[in-house]
Specification:
The chain is mainly α and 61 residues long. The protein has a single domain, classed as 5'-nuclease (Rossmann fold, 3-Layer(aba) Sandwich). It has three helices and two strands. It has helices at 3-19, 25-36, 46-49, and strands at 41-42, 57-58. Strands 1-2 form a two-stranded parallel sheet. The longest helix is centred in the first third of the chain and has 17 residues, at 3-19. This is VapC toxin protein. Its cofactor is Mg(2+). Residues 4-53 form the PIN domain. Pfam families: PIN.
Length: 61
């Protein structure tokens, strides 16, 4: 794992916790990987991932 992914994970987790809208740990790692590499996350789970500031998400379903 790259350090930038771990930093994104920590930032996302702290941000969501401060808002009282946490997401699961696995989803946090997925979001951290996508955001750290500036990729669009394709998911059918927009409800969870829309909470992550700065994460581009799309639903192809």
């Amino acid at each position: 794992m790259h350090q930038d992914v771990a930093l994104e994970y920590a930032e996302i987790r702290a941000d969501l916790a401060s808002k009282g809208t946490p997401i699961g740990n696995n989803d946090l790692w997925i979001a951290a990987h996508a955001r750290s590499s500036r990729h669009t996350l394709v998911t059918n789970n927009l409800k969870e991932f829309k909470r992550v500031t700065g994460l581009e998400v799309e639903n192809w379903v």
